[in-house]
Design brief:
Helix content is about 45%, strand content about 15%. A hairpin with a 5-residue loop joins strand 3 (about 170-180) and strand 4. It is α+β, with helices and mostly antiparallel strands. Helix 3 runs antiparallel to helix 4. The mean pLDDT is about 80. The chain contains 7 helices and 4 strands, in the order αααααββααββ.
Length: about 190
Amino acid sequence: MRRGSVRPQVRFVTAPVKREKSVALTYVLWLCLGGVGVHRYYNGRVGSGVAIAFLTVVGLATVGAGIGVLLFLAGAIWWLVDAFLIPGWVSRRNAGSSVRRTTTRPKVNWAAAARIMRHGPLNPRVICPHCGVQGAVHVQPVSVKTGISGGKVMGGMLTGGLSLLATGLSQARRMTEAHCGNCFSTWRF
């Protein structure tokens, strides 16, 4: 090369290679070292791997005390259950999703839900007579006992008052109860 000439520099940029996990290797780790959770470490489940290792090691160390048998048995049952879970772990891990799949629930406005339970659904056509706002009124049908029913009085006289014990004197009327979410007034019509 001549002196003074510029040689172009070539840089190679490589992306990190994502290594896929193997179901076969996971089963080998499960069979050979599963008692201490190595198969879980391999699949990114470190916390539960430490827990299963704790159960196994502490269980073996305290077998003489009697409680160790229970701890070791719990670890052994966990180890057996893992045999059925391994294919799902590996497929989720290789698909690029997180180790644990969580679903997001929509946020619930509990105050609005309580208002609907207490005062009924919102009716956008009703106008509040107190504050004049439209669309903030909850309505629901209600049964209101009012006055004395003439038929019940006559029945009470004929039965010596026994029918009044069962039914009462007042009569039930179907009405609509409205509640304004703006001025918090309640009325019936």
